[in-house]
Amino acid sequence: MRTDFIIERFFLLCALSSILVIALIFIFLFKEGIQTFIYISPIQFFTGSIWQPVASQPKYGILPLVAGSILVTLGATVIAVPIGILCATYLAEVSNPAAREILKPMIEILAGVPSVVFGFIALTVLADFTHGIFNTTYRLNALNGAVILAVMIMPTVVSVSEDAISAVPKEYKEAALALGATRWEASRRVVLPAALSGIIVAAMLGIGRAIGETMAVLMATGNAPLLTFDLLSSVETMTATIAIEMGEVAFGSPHYHALFAIGLVLFAMTFIVNLIAELVSAKFRSLRY
Amino acid sequence: MKALSNNNLKIQTKNLNLWFSEKHVLKNVNIVIEEKKVTAIMGPSGCGKTTLIRAFNRMNEIILGCRTSGEVLIDGKDVYGLDTDVVDLRRRVGLVFQKPNPFPKSIYDNVAFGPRIHGITRRRQLDDFVQFSLQEAALWEEVKDRLNDSALSLSGGQQQRLCIARALAVAPEVVLMDEPCSALDPAATAKIEVLMRKLTQNYTVIIVTHNMQQAARVSDFTAFMYLGELVEYGETKKIFENPENELTEKYITGKFG
Amino acid sequence: MISRRVREKIAFTFLRLSALLVLVALVAILYYIVSNGIGVVNIGFLLKNPEEGMTRGGIFPAIVGTVYLVALTLLFALPLGVATAIYLSEYARGKNNRVVMIIKMATRILAGIPSIVYGLLGLGLFVLFLNLRFSILSASLTLSFLTVPIIIAASEEALESVPMSYREAALALGATRWQTIRSAVLPYALPGIMTGSILGLSRAAGETAPIMITGVAYYLPRLPISLFDQFMALPFHIFTLSTQSSNPQLTRPVQFGTVFVLMALVLVMNLAAIVIRSRYSRLRA
Known about the structure:
The complex is a heterotrimer of chains A (289), B (257) and C (285). By secondary structure, chain A is mainly α. Chain A is 77% helix and 1% strand. Chain A has one domain (69-288): Orthogonal Bundle (MetI-like fold), CATH 1.10.3720. Chain A is built from 13 helices and 2 strands. Chain A has a two-stranded antiparallel ribbon. With 257 residues, chain B is α/β, with parallel strands linked by helices. Helix content of chain B is 35%, strand content 26%. In chain B, the strands form 2 sheets. A 6-stranded mixed beta sheet of chain B has the order 7-8-9-4-10-11, with helices on both faces. In chain B, strands 1, 2, 3, 5 and 6 form a 5-stranded antiparallel beta sheet that branches. The radius of gyration of chain B is 18 Å and the shape is globular. Chain C has a single domain (43-284), classed as Orthogonal Bundle (MetI-like fold), CATH 1.10.3720.10. Chain C has helices spanning 4-37, 43-47, 60-91, 98-111, 115-129, 136-160, 164-172, 177-206, 209-212, 234-243, 248-284, and strands at 50-51, 56-57. A two-stranded antiparallel sheet of chain C has the order 1-2. In chain C, helix 3 packs antiparallel against helix 8 (177-206) and helix 4 (98-111) packs across helix 6 (136-160). The radius of gyration of chain C is 23 Å and the shape is globular. Chain C starts with a helix and ends with a helix. In chain C, 49% of the residues are buried. At the A-C interface, helix 1, helix 4, helix 5, helix 6 and helix 7 of A face helix 1, helix 3, helix 4, helix 5 and helix 6 of C.
């Protein structure tokens, strides 16, 4: 059938668009970003510790921005991953169906809250909260960013972990119980270890989301590009830098290109994290059987 | 029902009924199991034989909607009583599943699982438990040099013997086996049948089987179930040569199955 | 040593607490938004233009802008997303060749790309290269790139859960592949596709970063009329009011009101998606 063949080719073309989009992202980021190095030396860019693009002698070192992203992401991961795994274990192993019917939609709703709303909350309520507890010098700081990011990536960690834990064959748990294990012993010693790779994937996806988050950290961290690992200091992430400064650059200027270069670094980082998660996930799926 | 000498009764059920939601799966079952013997429970698909043995270690309760009435006495004490420690019951009454289900861990860790839960952590002690159990399950010689290999690398028959070893490692008194050979080839089946007889030295063995010839070969006592009811039980020889109940006779002669 | 029973109790308590924590976080967020925003929101707020430097008046243009944006994004993203899902689910099934696997991996990777990177693509490709300028067109095209992976994932799942027997029955009656898909598969996958689309659009409605650099504006005297006009939008309104104005305190009530409206919009969409999905799965079971 000629028409059928054409139709199939049409759908294939649509599907190939996914690959096209990734290619486009890379092409445009590269095209605009690589021009940075006409004006700025790569060494200064990648190892410079000062980011001051708007100054009489502009400096384009991305280290403070990378450090900012890492600091906030690390903080969020430390909070969200343990709690998320515990929550997922609760959902998969302990909760009754009624509780699950309530909790799972709530987690989905949490996942749907726009990042600007999280940013707004961090800006207004959370900042006061952390100031009250830690007596911070800077009202907007990395800790704020880490906490609000943790709330944002929690749904991802919980739902992917929960899928992994639920996917462990029921026979393993039954065997453990038949040996006289308590439900907790069966979960801890048999089910959770078997779900480990899936849980790792969940953590990685959470990390990927955290690195890529823009608005919430933009509004929460104070946006001072300081190279520091002090959680109570203001920091600026890569994402926030691009978002804020792009509105004020002249197209074609070194600053403009530098922002695209940051975007390239960001793209590379999240691409790698997601790729690793993909590979671990594939290995997990093949191991299961 | 043939009376057995009361001194040797390991398990006794009194009017045991069980429902899964609305389905009445066990109907007024009164059976006695003599200790340190092999009792086979046979019957057509769906007659409730698996449910019956799982009632002995209360594994049916894992399924939502399970309700029971009546008593199951083990050593004279009702295990459905309010003060029963179900976790300990399951240690005392072990279960080997139809399809071998070793944990995705090493051979050693599979067998050591039970002892570890009970607080045995010293390597020497665990080694002893593992060796003993694997010997009891007639698997030691085949795996003693590769205890750290994954359990999933064993053949079907070996995995099933591993599951038996794993169950024996917690020093049970009763070993339940739910059609343990149905997923295995004849050679592996023969090995396990020999094992069943050997186990009676130390354990009470109850097997569920689809295979009448197996029941006749292996067991001391046989019970026949049909549609949730215990139709007849007694010494294997008698059941097969001279059954009292017409239904039993029909089943044995293959009129249905 | 602590007994095994007690260990189990302690462990389960921790598990329950963690779930409670997540629940409390959501409830606290919702409570904060609703309690502060509900006083501000009324018909006037929704229908009037901003007045007096955004301290009074309403957010009508921002609402309109967001609605236009979501509609356009739907227009671009839905066909492409569903078509891709159709290919992956119906034509590529069983074909585990290189191309198919790369497409699937690409889709998943796209789902993980930061929204600001999509914004950069939009800026480079639509605004500059294709010379669409800062416009609602550029912004919605950018957002549709972001939304497509979500629609693909949900649609693929919906299509794959349609029983094979439906397809086989149609094919046995002599239908072509496409006829089979159109009549025996798509109709049954529709609820799942709708769910996915709604969730994707709800995400698009809430995005700020990509539209920041492709065309959204803080204040415009008129509503957008052509595709090449700039526009206002709810998320950007929230952002600018709370961070860029000289005294955010003055506009705080309007901020809360805007957050409330955006959250209401997103919540309604999410709940609709959840309801459709559960009614659909009940029908199947």
